[in-house]
Structure formats: C-alpha cells, structure tokens
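Bug report (template v2)

What were you trying to do?
Predict the complex of my protein with RFL.

What happened?
Run completed; filing so the output is reviewed.

Input:
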Amino acid sequence: MKMHTRVGIVGAGPAGLVLSHLLHLEGIESIVLESHTREYVESRVRAGVLEQGTVDLLNAAGVGDRMRREGLGHGGIELRFNRRGHRIDFRDLTGGRTITVYGQQELVKDLIQARLDAGGQVLFEASDASIHGLETTTPQIRFCKDGEQNEIDCDFIGGCDGFHGVCRPSVPEGVLKVYERNYPFGWLGILASAAPSSDELIYANHERGFALQSMRSPSITRLYLQCPPDEDIAQWPDERIWEELQLRLAGDEGFHLNEGPIFQKGVTGMRSYVVEPMQYRRMFLAGDAAHIVPPTGAKGMNLAIADVRILSKALAAYYAAGDDTKLNQYSATCLRRVWRAQHFSWWMTSMLHHFEADGEFDYRRQLAELDYVTSSRAAATSLAENYVGFPIE
Ligand code: RFL
Ligand code: PHB
C-alpha cells in the first residue's frame, strides 16, 4: 500500500508518541510506526522520573490527567554514604521546582490512548522498516505489516526509534560524529510488591557498589544494584538480591528496607553516547536514537521529550509560514541540553558507583565530594537544579 503523511515517525516510545501528539495539537498530521505490539510497549519497564518541565509540558498538552492522579510528587532525594542519609531539598534550593515519579510505561499507555482517541495512526507490529530517498524532498519509509509491503511518502521523518533503531544507521557514512563512553558496570533493576521504605528516592554509595531505592506506587518498590555490565540474571536469585540491597542501603538511623515478592528483573548496561548533528536533510533524530545517558541522572526520557517539543515547534513554524530557521537550528538547540544532561549524568555516575579499577584514594575522593554536595548550599543547588531540570526552550 502507498501512503502519504507530513511527518513519518519511526518508534512508539516516549519520543515518537509525544512528537505525534504535539504535532496533532499544531494541526500537523503524522503516522507512527512501531515494530512491537501495543502490549509490549505498554509493559516495557524503564524510566520513572519526570522533570518539572516534562510534567508541565504533558499537562499543557492535555495528557497529564492520570499522571496528576497517580504520579508521586517528590520535593527532594536522599544521598546515602557512610551509612548516613543526607537530603537534597529540591523545593528549597530551586524556588519550588520538584520531580514526579510516574512509570514510563504508564505515560506510554496514556499517550497511545490519546493518539487513538484523536483518530491518530499508530501502526504496531510494523516490521522491517527502512528509510529511503533521504536526498529528495519526499523521503520514504517502507515497512511490512500483516504480510503486506507498504510505503509512506513523507515531508519529514522523525527518527524516534531508540538506540537500536534503523534511522540513525540510514544516514550516509561520514555525516554523523559519535561521542561515547562505556562504563565497566550495569544496573540490575527489580520491581517488588513491597511498600517503598522511604518517601523519597535513595541514591547510595557503598563500598560494595551503588544501590538505588525508587518506587512506582505506595505498594510497589523499584530498586537497582550496580552489577557487572553483562551480568547473567540467573546468578541473582531473589534472596541474593535482597541480601545485597540490605547491605548497600543499610543506614544507622533505624532505616528498614521492606522486602516483598519480586515480579520483574532485568540488567541494563550503562553508556554515554551522542551523535552530532541530530539531523540529516529531512530526517530528525530524537531521544535515544540520538543520545544515551547513564540512568543515574534520570534524564533519558526527559531529554527525549524535550527534543520532540523543540522539533514540533520547528515543524509548526515551517508549516505555518515556510520558515525553516528553527528546523535548521534543531540539532544545535537540542545538543546544548543534551550535553548538560551528559555532564550531569556522568557526574552522578562517577560520584556514586564503585569503580573496580580505582583504589582507596578514589573512594575517599568520592566521599569528600558527597560530603561537599550535602553540606554546601552552592553545591547542593547545582545538583538540585540539574535534577529537576532546566525549562524547555
Ligand atoms: P525508546 O523508548 O527506546 O522507544 C523507541 C521505540 O522505537 C521502536 N523501534 C522501532 N519501531 C519500528 N521500526 C524499527 N526498526 C524500530 N526500532 C525500534 C522500539 O520498539 C521502541 O518502542 O526511545 P525514546 O522514545 O527515545 O525514549 C527514551 C527512553 O525510553 C529512555 O531514555 C529512558 O527509558 C531512559 N531511562 C530513564 N530516563 C529518565 O528520564 N528517567 C529515568 O528515571 C530513567 N531511568 C532509563 C531509566 C532507562 C533504563 N533502561 C532500561 C535503559 C532506567 C533504566 C533501567
Ligand atoms: C526509576 O524509578 O526507575 C529510576 C529513578 C531514578 C533514576 C533511575 C531510574 O536515576
């Protein structure tokens, strides 16, 4: 089948779905292609922290109802080291800005529902997507669905297909420059039916490695442990996970880590990655397709949403008056925020994890930095303003 749309979007993650929704609000038609099933993308467990600016954007775009009801507002986080907790008070340090804990898959559900309710096209199980005609003014996306070959002629393509997608590799050799760093560890993440042990997130630096307590609801805890980068999850029976979490999150002040049945487990590698520019001709890369941050700064989904907000405004200016200034500035505008988040995520990662190759000196240096961040208002403000995020342009 042959189709035409203004913006062909590859990927129904946060980037692709928010882009399609924002374009709809601007009166610009789009089609979203997703290789997986709707059930799969709605149940994929990933991010949990939304910056103030992301929450504001989703509310203003009319897709924040359930997030407002079920999301958990947090005015701070705890940094734990030497068995003691130290609170970073976001509200106080940033003039009232906060974060919201709301599972990425819940947001994805809300966005899919909003697109379908508005008559939007989200084509699931679209396999073998490929990009063609990037040198022309009507690039095409070809894909297979229900055994049929299809082609969409587009004015523009939104490459929102994540780190392993097809859009970035479709750019001719030599155009994109890659900047990257891999870390010698990963995160083992679990979801457990247990009440969170503390109202706020706890980021713990421990000699045995990093640990994080987060949550999804008043009865579901999300916990992470630093582990080897390609750890076999079979090495981690539930008892071992709880034992290690108990050790790493232990505190002197009567802290008790609640345990409960674990119903989801997974290991993720950690990397920092950026391609420049985030555009080739009429194809724009957004979200994980263009950049990856280690999750310690909780920035990935927020960056994805900031990218597509900038892209939707640029496309709106183009369709309203043929003005392509903002489209031409897209990459530079996004990259400024991306590199700020890269620095912050790298900094949080290096301050909080145990680096096998480092010695006692580096551990003492980490403790000195944590002591500074939790005792100097200037240093704490820097962490807080980065964590709650900067306003989206
Ligand atoms: P996604 O979510 O990967 O979506 C891309 C979509 O494209 C589809 N796709 C294709 N579709 C059609 N044809 C193809 N050829 C395709 N190839 C791929 C995929 O199936 C998928 O549906 O990318 P997007 O939209 O850019 O969103 C990025 C976020 O998902 C990611 O940055 C965050 O999850 C990162 N992240 C966190 N971000 C935060 O902001 N706050 C957090 O607290 C946070 N914690 C995390 C995280 C990521 C984690 N993992 C598992 C990597 C914690 C973890 C453990
Ligand atoms: C999460 O709740 O999944 C989460 C929270 C904070 C992070 C990363 C992930 O830095």
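What did the reviewer find?
The chain has a mean pLDDT of 97. DSSP finds eleven helices and 19 strands in the chain.
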